[in-house]
Design goal:
Elements (H helix, E strand, L loop, with lengths): L4 E4 L11 H12 L5 E4 L13 E4 L2 E4 L1 H12 L9 H26 L5 H11 L5 H18 L6 H19 L12 H14 L6 H7 L2 H14 L1
Parallel strand pairs: 1-2
Antiparallel strand pairs: 1-3, 3-4
Helix pairs in contact: 1-2, 1-7, 1-9, 3-6, 3-7, 6-8, 7-9
């Protein structure tokens, strides 16, 4: 049987995908010890709904990170979340929606904030010389439009970061002193949290989000712990 193939954006700064949704799926599959191919791409024309990440498995093409994880759990009878209570599963869902909200301040800190955009652009161009600066500039302009129409781009930068920091603070508070979100064992929600926090923590860009993560030892510890298991 052919192995599933995960298509996602290129890695950066030592993490396997510079997009948190792709990194979430990658980390989940690694935590499950699944054999799979990982292909880094930029062209989304073959992706379901034109978005990365997506997974191919035989004749199946699955888009959306949560849908991919749900498919893999069902298709391969993965046991990572076995034993979670109904209350924990509800909290898992709410945390994923919190991470969806965090995506916008995190993305803005790279593409939208003029203070940090040059550093992010230079990191990408230095690590991936096949990417042209013109492509980065075009993506920058496209993302500026996304932020405006999504709504986050209509706020002042400090308001955008306040929102992202509130998301991170909620996650830190729930994690507390535990090794992982639901105790001593890593679950799929830990892969999801890692996907986002790693894309802040490992980047040498001093955004307010990075500064907040560095000030939360439990978030940094969690990120390092999952990173050691999935790299």
């Amino acid at each position: 049987m052919d192995k599933p193939t995960l298509y996602s954006y290129p890695g950066l700064c030592g993490v396997a995908d510079n997009n948190p949704f792709g990194l979430k799926v990658y980390a989940f599959m690694r935590l499950c010890n699944m054999p799979f191919e990982h292909k880094h791409i930029l062209d989304t024309k073959n992706a379901p709904r034109g978005q990365l990440p997506y997974l191919t498995d035989g004749d199946q093409d699955i888009g959306d990170s949560d849908a991919i994880i749900a498919y893999l759990i069902h298709r391969y009878r993965l046991a990572l979340d076995d034993g979670l209570s109904e209350q924990q599963r509800r909290l898992d869902y709410l945390l994923r929606r919190t991470l969806d909200d965090l995506y916008w301040p995190m993305s803005y800190s790279r593409w939208g904030d003029a203070r940090y955009w040059p550093s992010f652009r230079n990191l990408v161009l230095a690590e991936h010389p096949q990417i042209a600066q013109g492509d980065m500039d075009a993506a920058h302009d496209y993302n500026q439009q996304r932020y405006y129409y999504q709504g986050i781009g209509r706020y002042q930068p400090e308001q955008i970061y306040e929102r992202g920091i509130a998301d991170l603070a909620a996650i830190s508070g729930l994690l507390g002193d535990s090794a992982f979100i639901f105790g001593a064992a890593a679950r799929s929600i830990d892969a999801a949290v890692y996907g986002f926090v790693a894309n802040i923590y490992f980047y040498d860009i001093p955004t307010p989000l990075k500064q907040f993560v560095l000030a939360c030892p439990n978030l940094a510890r969690h990120c390092e712990s999952v990173h050691a298991r999935v790299r």
